[in-house]
C-alpha cells in the first residue's frame, strides 16, 4: 500500500502527536525494515517505536480507524517473513525491553527484551534463567518467542515457551488491554443470554473474550476434535485451541496458549511474567558419529527412552563446513562421518543434581546401546568438562549459521527448515525427502532437533538460474504434501509466517473455519499481521526479495550460461549513473551487500559481545551491520532513490560504524560491513563535502606536519584552559579529552634526514628484513616507541629499515569516508611497501589497526596485484614477534618484571587474527614469556575510542560510556597498569581508569633493559 508523500506526512504527524515513541516514514528506514532473515521482502509505510503500553494502545486505535495493518517486531530475524508487512511496523526492541520485576522464580518483562540479555542479567544476579529457546541464540526477542511458542532446541528439557508463562498482558485490535493471569483462570458461565452477558460485563473484558472463545470451542465438531487430537505435541501451525479449556470438564478458560503461538495475529504482547529455572547441571553428553544419516535417525529414536534433554542431528556438509570455520574441530570430527548426533542426558539441576556416578552410568549405557549393541555409530566422543560443553554448544550453534558462509553461486534457502513428523516416521520421511530432492535435482543439507521429530532441510541452489524459483515452488509443494501424509506438521517452531499459510488448509481441513472464527473474535478487521495463520491467497513467491526476483530474470544483454553470478547481478541492477555520481564502482559493494542473509547475529544488545558498540549501546537495530547491507542493496536494486544514500538518514546509519571490524569475525557470512559503511560515507562526502571535524581527522597528519615548527608552543598553549575552550568551540575537540604532547620533530622527519636509518639493508645480509611502518601516534607523539621497536627487532636478529617515503595509513580518512585522500594514501603506501616486499621485506606495523588498514582497506581501495602482495606480508609487531618465538628464535634474555598488568585486546587485533574474544591473544602469549610479569586479560568489550572517533566532541560522552566496563576492571589495586597494543586504546584506558596504560613494546623494552623505567 504505497502512500503518497502527503499521506506519509500526515501519517507521521498524526502518530507523532499521539505517542511518546519515535515515528519514521522515510524511505531509508522503510528499506531497513523491508527484509528479515527470510527470502522475502515487503516494504512497510511507517516504523513506530513505542515507549510504553499507552503508546501501543494509541497506535492500535489509530490503525484501526485508518484501517492500516500492524506488524509487531522484535529483532526481525524470522525465517518466514513473519514480521514483514505493508503497514506500520511496531518495533519493541528499542524502548520496551526492560525487566519490570523479578521474584525468586519469576520475572516480568517487556516484549522487546532479548532472551540472551535476560538470561545474562538474571543469570548473574539470581543464578536463574528462562529456559525455552526457539530462535536465533543471539538476537531473539522474548515477545517473538511467546508469539511463536516454538518447540526449539531445549524442548526436551523445558517443553514449550507457553508452559513457562505465568501471566500475559496483550493489546487487542480494538485497543482493549487484556491481563491474563494463569493463577486465576476464568470460569465463564455456560450458554448465552442476559445472565451470561451480565457476568461478563461485571467481571471485565477478560470474561467477555473467555466466554466467546469457550462458546466457539464447545461447539467443535467431532471431526475437529479428532483433527486437533491428531496433531503432534510440537506442532506450531494454526492456533493451539486444544490447550484452552482446562479443568476436568473444560470449565476453565486459559487464553494464554491461544495468544502464545498466534504469530502476533490475535494481540500484541506488551508484558509477560515468566517462570525462571535454575541452570541445569551439565555432566553427561556425547557426540555420536555415523556412516549414514539413517543410522543417526535410528539412533535418535533408540535414545529417547533414556530421556535425553537434547538430541541434535548434523549432516556431513555442515560438519565439514564447521571444521573449515573453526579448525579446533578438525581433529575431533572424523572426516568420514556422514552424520553426527549430539545427545545430552539429564544431570538434574543445581538444587537436585544427579550423582556423577549415575550420570556416567547412564551415558555408558547409551553409548553401549548405540555403538556396541545396535552398531549404529562408528565413533563416540564423551563430553564431560566445562570446556567440552563449550565446544559441544558451539558446534550446535555453528551448525545453524554455517551455511550462511557459502560465498559461491550456490546458496542455502531457508524454506523447509521447520518440519516435524512422528519419531517413528522420521526415517521414511527423510527417505521420501531425499527422493524428492533427487527428482528435482536439488542438493540439500539436513539437520534438526531430531529428538522431537524436527527436521531442517536447506536446499542449496544457484538462485541466479532462471528456473530456481519455480523449482523451489514445486519442491515446497511436494515436501509439505509428503510431510502431512506422514502425519507431520509444516511447522514445529516458527509458525507459517508468510511462507507457508497456503499449506495450512491441507494440514487443518476441519479446523480452519474455527481458526478463522478465533481470529475474528479478537481481530475482526484483520489488522494484526494479516496473511499469517489465515491465508489471504497470496503465494509466497509474490513476496520474494527483489534481488531474487531479478536474479531469476535473464539479463538485458544475455551473454549465455557462462556468465558469472556477479555479472548477471550487475547487468540486472546496476544503474550506470550510480557509478558516476558516487565516484566508486557499485560492483565493489555487490558481494557484501548480497551476502548478508539478515541472520541477525550482529544484533547483540548485551555487554558480552563486542560487535557494533553503538548499536548495542542504543539498542537500535538500524545501527547494526545488517542495516548497512540493507541500505546499499536498496540502492543497487533501485528500491530507494540514489539520492537517499547521500541524505542525512543514510549518513546517520553509516556514521554508526567506526570501523572496528569486529563484524569480520562475528558475522557468520563474513560480510565486510566496514567497507559498506565506508562506501556510504564516501557517497555522502561526494555530494556534500566533508564537515570540518571530519576534515581535521582525515588530514591530521598534514596538519601535524605543517604545525611542526611550532609544536613546543602548541604544547604550552594546550595546557591553558582558555585555549582548550577555544579549541573545543572552533574544532570540536572536547576540553576534557587528554591530548598527548607533540614532539619537536616527527620520527619520520628525523628518519628522512638521517644518513643511516633510512638506508636499505645491505643486499648481502642473511638476516630477515623488516620494513617498519610507523603509525601516526608514534610518529608525532611518541617516537621512542618506534625506536624501541627497532631496537627489539635488531636485538632479535632482524635487519630493520624504516621506509622514509611511507605516509600515514589513511585510517582516519577511511573512517570518515574521505575517499579521495584515503585512496591516494593507499596507492602511495602500497607502491612504496610492495616494492620492499618484492625485495624480500616483511612489513611490520606498530599497531594492529594499521595492519588491518594496510591489508583489508587497501585491498579494496587499490585492488591490484601490489595490494594483494602487501596484504600477504603485513603483520603487527606483537604477532610478528610471537611468530619469531614460535620458530624458536626469540631472544629471551629478559629481566624479571614484577608487575601485574591488565591487557585489553583492541578490536582490530581480534579482527586481524580472526580470534574469538575468548582466545589468548599474541600480546598475552608474548608478555607471559617475561619472568615475573602477571598478565590478566580484561575482556570487557570495546574501549570506545576507535582512533579519532572519541576525540570528537559529539562522541566524547558516548565514547566514555562504552568504555565504562573496561575502566571498572582496571581500577582495583591488584592491577598495576593497563596494556594495549593500540595507542588510542591506551589513551582511553588511562583517561577512564586514571591508571597508566602502555604499549607492550615498552614492557618488552624494559624487560630487555633498553629503558630503565616506564613512562
Ligand atoms: C540463523 C538463524 C537460526 C534460527 N534458528 C531458529 C531455531 O532454531 N528455532 C526457531 O524457532 N527459530 C529460529 N530462527 C528464526 C528466528 O530466530 C526466530 O523466528 C525468532 O524468534 C525471531 O525473533 P525476533 O525477535 O527476531 O522476532 P521477529 O522476527 O521480529 O518477529 C517474529 C514474530 O513474532 C511476532 N512478535 C514479535 N513481538 C511481538 C509482540 N510483542 N507481540 C506479538 N507478536 C510479536 C512478530 O509479529 C512475528 O510474527 C532462526 C533464525 C536464524 C537467522
Ligand atoms: S551482517 Fe552478517 S551477522 Fe549481520 S545480519 Fe548480515 S549476515 Fe547476519
Ligand atoms: S566495523 Fe565495527 S562498528 Fe562497523 S559495522 Fe562492523 S562491528 Fe559495527
How would you sum up this structure, described in words?
The chain is α/β, with parallel strands linked by helices. Helix content is 43%, strand content 13%. Strands 12, 13, 14, 15, 16, 17, 18 and 19 form an 8-stranded antiparallel beta sheet that branches. Strand 26 (977-979), helix 43 and strand 27 form a beta-alpha-beta unit. Helix 22 packs across helix 24. The chain is globular. One iron/sulfur cluster is lined by residues 404, 596-602, 625-626, 629, 667, 669, 671, 673.
Total beta strand runs: 27
What spatial form do the alpha-carbon principal axes imply?
globular
Report how far the terminal alpha carbons are from each other.
65 Å
Helix content: 40-55%
Main beta-sheet strand count, sense and barrel state: 8 strands, antiparallel
- Structural class comes to alpha/beta
User: Which regions contain 5 or more consecutive residues with pLDDT less than 50?
Assistant: 552-566, 572-581
Radius of gyration: 31 Å
Output the number of helix runs. Answer: 44
Strand content: 5-15%
Bound molecules: flavin-adenine dinucleotide, iron/sulfur cluster
Averaged pLDDT? 89
Amino acid at each position: 500500500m504505497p502512500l503518497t508523500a502527503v499521506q506519509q506526512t500526515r501519517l507521521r504527524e498524526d502518530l507523532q502527536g499521539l505517542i511518546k515513541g519515535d515515528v519514521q516514514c522515510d524511505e531509508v528506514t522503510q528499506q531497513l525494515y523491508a527484509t528479515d532473515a527470510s527470502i522475502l521482502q515487503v516494504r512497510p509505510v511507517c516504523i513506530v517505536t513505542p515507549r510504553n503500553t499507552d503508546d501501543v494502545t494509541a497506535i492500535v486505535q489509530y490503525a484501526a480507524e485508518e484501517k492500516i495493518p500492524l506488524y509487531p517486531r522484535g529483532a526481525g530475524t524470522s525465517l518466514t517473513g513473519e514480521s514483514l508487512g505493508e503497514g506500520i511496523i511496531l518495533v519493541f526492541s528499542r524502548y520496551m525491553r526492560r525487566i519490570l520485576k523479578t521474584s525468586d522464580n519469576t520475572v516480568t518483562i517487556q516484549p522487546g527484551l532479548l532472551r540472551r540479555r535476560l538470561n545474562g542479567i538474571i543469570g548473574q544476579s539470581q543464578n536463574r534463567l528462562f529456559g525455552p529457546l526457539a530462535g536465533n541464540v543471539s538476537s531473539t526477542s522474548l515477545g517473538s518467542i511467546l508469539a511463536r511458542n516454538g518447540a526449539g532446541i531445549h524442548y526436551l528439557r523445558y517443553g514449550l515457551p507457553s508452559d513457562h508463562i505465568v501471566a500475559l498482558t496483550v493489546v487487542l485490535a480494538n485497543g482493549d488491554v487484556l491481563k491474563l493471569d494463569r493463577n486465576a483462570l476464568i470460569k465463564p458461565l455456560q450458554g448465552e443470554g442476559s445472565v451470561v452477558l451480565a457476568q461478563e460485563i461485571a467481571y471485565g473484558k477478560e470474561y467477555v473474550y473467555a466466554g466467546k472463545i469457550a462458546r466457539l470451542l464447545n461447539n467443535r465438531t467431532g471431526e475437529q476434535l479428532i483433527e486437533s487430537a491428531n496433531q503432534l505435541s510440537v506442532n506450531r501451525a494454526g492456533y493451539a485451541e486444544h490447550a484452552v479449556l482446562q479443568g476436568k470438564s473444560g470449565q476453565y478458560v486459559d487464553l494464554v496458549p491461544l495468544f502464545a503461538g498466534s504469530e502476533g495475529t490475535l494481540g500484541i504482547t506488551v508484558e509477560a511474567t515468566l517462570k525462571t529455572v535454575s541452570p541445569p547441571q551439565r555432566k553427561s553428553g556425547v557426540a555420536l558419529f555415523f556412516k549414514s544419516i539413517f543410522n543417526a535417525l535410528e539412533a535418535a529414536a533408540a535414545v529417547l527412552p533414556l530421556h535425553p534433554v537434547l538430541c541434535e542431528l548434523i549432516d556431513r556438509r555442515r560438519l565439514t563446513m564447521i571444521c573449515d570455520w573453526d579448525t579446533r574441530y578438525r581433529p575431533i570430527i572424523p572426516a568420514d562421518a556422514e552424520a553426527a548426533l549430539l545427545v545430552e542426558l539429564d544431570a538434574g539441576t543445581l538444587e537436585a543434581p544427579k550423582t556423577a556416578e549415575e550420570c556416567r552410568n547412564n551415558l555408558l549405557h547409551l553409548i553401549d546401546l548405540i555403538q556396541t549393541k545396535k552398531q549404529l555409530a562408528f565413533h563416540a566422543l564423551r563430553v564431560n568438562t566445562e570446556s567440552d560443553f563449550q565446544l559441544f554448544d558451539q558446534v550446535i550453534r555453528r551448525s545453524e549459521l554455517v551455511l550462511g558462509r557459502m560465498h559461491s553461486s550456490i546458496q542455502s534457502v531457508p524454506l523447509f527448515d521447520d518440519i516435524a513428523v512422528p519419531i517413528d516416521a522420521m526415517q521414511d520421511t527423510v527417505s521420501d525427502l531425499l527422493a524428492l530432492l533427487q527428482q528435482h535435482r536439488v542438493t540439500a543439507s539436513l539437520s534438526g532437533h531430531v529428538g522431537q521429530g524436527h527436521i531442517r532441510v536447506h536446499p542449496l541452489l544457484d538462485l541466479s538460474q532462471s528456473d530456481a524459483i519455480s523449482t523451489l515452488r514445486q519442491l515446497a509443494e511436494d515436501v509439505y504434501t509428503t510431510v502431512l501424509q506422514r502425519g507431520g506438521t509444516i511447522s514445529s517452531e516458527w509458525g507459517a509466517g508468510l511462507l507457508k499459510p497456503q499449506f495450512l488448509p491441507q494440514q487443518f481441513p476441519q479446523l480452519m473455519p474455527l481458526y478463522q472464527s478465533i481470529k475474528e473474535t479478537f481481530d475482526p478487521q484483520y489488522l494484526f499481521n494479516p496473511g499469517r495463520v489465515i491465508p489471504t491467497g497470496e503465494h509466497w513467491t509474490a513476496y520474494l526479495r527483489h534481488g531474487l526476483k531479478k536474479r531469476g530474470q535473464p539479463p538485458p544483454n544475455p551473454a549465455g550460461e557462462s556468465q558469472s553470478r556477479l555479472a548477471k547481478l550487475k547487468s540486472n541492477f546496476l544503474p550506470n549513473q550510480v557509478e558516476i555520481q558516487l565516484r566508486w564502482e557499485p560492483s565493489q559493494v555487490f558481494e557484501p551487500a548480497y551476502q548478508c542473509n539478515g541472520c541477525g547475529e550482529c544484533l547483540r544488545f548485551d555487554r558480552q559481545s563486542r560487535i557494533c558498540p553503538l548499536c548495542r549501546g542504543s539498542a537500535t537495530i538500524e545501527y547494526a551491520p545488517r542495516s548497512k547491507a540493507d541500505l546499499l542493496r536498496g540502492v543497487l536494486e533501485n528500491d530507494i532513490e540514489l539520492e537517499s544514500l547521500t541524505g542525512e538518514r543514510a549518513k546517520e546509519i553509516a556514521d554508526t560504524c567506526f570501523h572496528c571490524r569486529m563484524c569480520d569475525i562475528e558475522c557468520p557470512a563474513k560480510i565486510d560491513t566496514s567497507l559498506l559503511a565506508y562506501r556510504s560515507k564516501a557517497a555522502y562526502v561526494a555530494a556534500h563535502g566533508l564537515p570540518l571535524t571530519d576534515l581535521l581527522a582525515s588530514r591530521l597528519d598534514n596538519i601535524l606536519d605543517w604545525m611542526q615548527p611550532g609544536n613546543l608552543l602548541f604544547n604550552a598553549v594546550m595546557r591553558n584552559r582558555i585555549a582548550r575552550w577555544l579549541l573545543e568551540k572552533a574544532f570540536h575537540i572536547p576540553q576534557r579529552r587528554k591530548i598527548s604532547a607533540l614532539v619537536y620533530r616527527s620520527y619520520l622527519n628525523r628518519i628522512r634526514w638521517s644518513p643511516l636509518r633510512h638506508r636499505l639493508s645491505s643486499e648481502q645480509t642473511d638476516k630477515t628484513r623488516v620494513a617498519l611502518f610507523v603509525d601516526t601516534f608514534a610518529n608525532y607523539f611518541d617516537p621512542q616507541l618506534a625506536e624501541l621497536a627497532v631496537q627489539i627487532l635488531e636485538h632479535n636478529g632482524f635487519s630493520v629499515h624504516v621506509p622514509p617515503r611511507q605516509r600515514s595509513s589513511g585510517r582516519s580518512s577511511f573512517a570518515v569516508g574521505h575517499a579521495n585522500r584515503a585512496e591516494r594514501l593507499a596507492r602511495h603506501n602500497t607502491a612504496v611497501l610492495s616494492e620492499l616486499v618484492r625485495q624480500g621485506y616483511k612489513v611490520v606495523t606498530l599497531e594492529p589497526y594499521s595492519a588491518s588498514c594496510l591489508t583489508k582497506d587497501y585491498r579494496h581501495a587499490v585492488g591490484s596485484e601490489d595490494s594483494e602482495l602487501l596484504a600477504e606480508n603485513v603483520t603487527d609487531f606483537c604477532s610478528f614477534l610471537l611468530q619469531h618465538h614460535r620458530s624458536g628464535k626469540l631472544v629471551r634474555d629478559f629481566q624479571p618484571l614484577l608487575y601485574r598488568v591488565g591487557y585489553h585486546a583492541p578490536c582490530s587485533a581480534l579482527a586481524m587474527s580472526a580470534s574469538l574474544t575468548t582466545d589468548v591473544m599474541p600480546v598475552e602469549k608474548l608478555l607471559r614469556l617475561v619472568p615475573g610479569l602477571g598478565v590478566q586479560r580484561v575482556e570487557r568489550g570495546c574501549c570506545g575510542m576507535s582512533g579519532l572517533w572519541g576525540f570528537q566532541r559529539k562522541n566524547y560522552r558516548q565514547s566514555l560510556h562504552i568504555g565504562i566496563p573496561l575502566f571498572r576492571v582496571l581500577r582495583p589495586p591488584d592491577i598495576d597498569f593497563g596494556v594495549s597494543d593500540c595507542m588510542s586504546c591506551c589513551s582511553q584506558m588511562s583517561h577512564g581508569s586514571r591508571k597508566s596504560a602502555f604499549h607492550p613494546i615498552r614492557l618488552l623494552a624494559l624487560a630487555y633493559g633498553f629503558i630503565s623505567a616506564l613512562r
